[in-house]
Amino acid sequence: MNRFLTTLLSVLLTAWLALAAGIGAAQAQSQATSAAPGAAATPDEFIRLLGNSILDRIREDPQLKAGDVQGILKFVDETVMPNVDFERMTALATGRHWRQATPQQQRQLMAEFRTVLVRTYAGAVASVKDQQLRIKPMRGQGEQGEYVVRSEIVSNRGEPIEISYRVEKSTSGWKIFDFNVMGVWLIEAYRGQFSQELNARGMDGLIQALAERNRKFTQAKAN
């Protein structure tokens, strides 16, 4: 993964954690905190509730602050992934190749892509210090019931960082399916990276490349 994408993903997770850290203790003890984020009435409230869920989980699990990859994987599975339409995210990143892939290829690609993202998150959990996240006024409804929730990270150490979330209402509640960090959408960034491998080696080649990247990362951590 190139340095830009690593920075983008780290800032993204920092945004989620900063959102949680910026919510007062009294609000964190409210009934809304215990509610499922996806059941929120509005997209911006969904993002707020997700932040609370993340903060609660971090408080319970010291492995997260230590950057433990297995702990991060479990954290993402239980707290983050239920609120993300990861299948749609992966499909958008691979374009027409997704529709041409077999169900087995789709499952394999999602598994490897998820691991690529999560291992990047591992180093970002402990980076939250004085940051806070501000939700900006909501824009109107987009195509097919999609919304953009805009926010910014503010701290005492630099200029605000703009973060946006593309969300949609599914049958099971609100879901995030794309992120924008500093003007670049995550799907767009990965689509460019994936297209080179897909055009050269097809879906199996992309899966193999991601699996090899994850294998090398695991070996490096073991050493």
Describe it for me?
- A five-stranded antiparallel β-sheet has the order 1-2-3-4-5.
- By secondary structure, it is an alpha+beta fold.
- The chain is globular.
- The model is unreliable at 17-34 (pLDDT under 50).
- The protein has helices at 3-21, 25-28, 31-34, 43-60, 62-65, 69-80, 86-94, 96-100, 103-121, 186-222; strands spanning 132-135, 146-154, 161-170, 173-181, 184-185.
- The protein has ten helices and five strands.
- Helix 6 (69-80) packs across helix 9, helix 7 (86-94) crosses helix 10 and helix 9 packs across helix 10 (186-222).
How much is the radius of gyration in Å?
Answer: 17 Å
Compute the average pLDDT: 76
Q: Give the termini distance in whole angstroms.
A: 20 Å
Return the string of H and E elements: HHHHHHHHHEEEEEH
The helix count comes to 10
The percentage of residues in β strands lies in: 15-25%
Based on secondary structure, the structural category is alpha+beta
Looking across the biggest beta sheet, what order are the strands in?
1-2-3-4-5
Report the major sheet: 5 strands, antiparallel
Helix content: 55-70%
- Which segments are poorly predicted (pLDDT under 50) over 5 or more consecutive residues? 17-34
Shape: globular
The number of distinct β-strands equals 5
